[in-house]
Each structure stands twice: as structure tokens, then as C-alpha cells.
Write a structure and sequence with these properties.
This protein has five helices and no strands. The chain is mainly alpha-helical and 108 residues long. The protein starts with a helix and ends with a helix. It comes from Streptomyces badius. It is found in: Cell membrane.
Length: 108
């Protein structure tokens, strides 16, 4: 597995988690205090979440995760603050599977 697969996942995990927190705050403001609109924020988060799902599936297929683990990683993207705890663990496990292309380039 290449490093860029893990990097794409990590970036999208954090970006999606931050937008989920922004969306959660907007929902609280809208329904709790009857201020603001959530349409634009929800659409941005929705698009980012779809990209996150694609990158998580890509990482999971290359890391050969069981389906249950993949579902847990995807569920972490739906729960506020969960990605901040799940992403480091997933990255630590996946980092061991990353192949280093530098020695192969040195031989050529």
C-alpha cells in the first residue's frame, strides 16, 4: 500500500470531522436558538463525507480490513468527535502496511 492512500484518508477524516462539528453547532443554533441556516453547511459536509467514504473504502480494501472494521471506521465519520479518536488508531495500524518506495528507487 502506498503512503498517499493513508494520507488521503487522514486528511479527509480530519476535514470531515471538523465539518461535522460545524454542522452540529449550526443545528444547535438553528433549533436551540432559532437562528441561522444549515443548508450550505449540510451540503458541504455531505460532499466531504462522500469523499471520506470513498477514501476509507480505498484504504480498507488495500489494508484488507474485515467488513466490520470498515463499518466502524465509516460510523466514526458520523459521530461528532469520534474521528479524532479512531483516525490515529487506524493510521497507526495502516502505517505498518505502507511500503517505502525509496529503496526501490535507489536500486535503479
Amino acid at each position: 500500500m502506498k503512503q498517499n492512500v493513508l494520507t488521503r484518508y487522514r486528511v479527509m477524516a480530519y476535514v470531515t470531522a471538523i465539518w461535522l462539528l460545524v454542522f452540529t453547532a449550526a443545528i444547535i443554533a438553528k433549533y436551540g436558538f432559532e437562528t441561522g441556516d444549515t443548508m450550505l453547511i449540510s451540503q458541504i459536509h455531505g460532499v466531504l463525507f462522500i469523499v471520506y467514504v470513498v477514501f476509507a473504502f480505498d484504504l480498507g480494501s488495500k489494508a484488507k480490513w474485515p467488513f466490520g472494521k470498515l463499518l466502524w471506521v465509516l460510523a466514526a465519520g458520523c459521530i461528532p468527535f469520534a474521528s479524532f479518536f479512531v483516525e490515529p488508531k487506524v493510521s497507526r495500524e495502516a502505517r505498518a502496511l505502507v511500503t517505502d518506495p525509496a529503496p526501490a528507487a535507489a536500486k535503479a
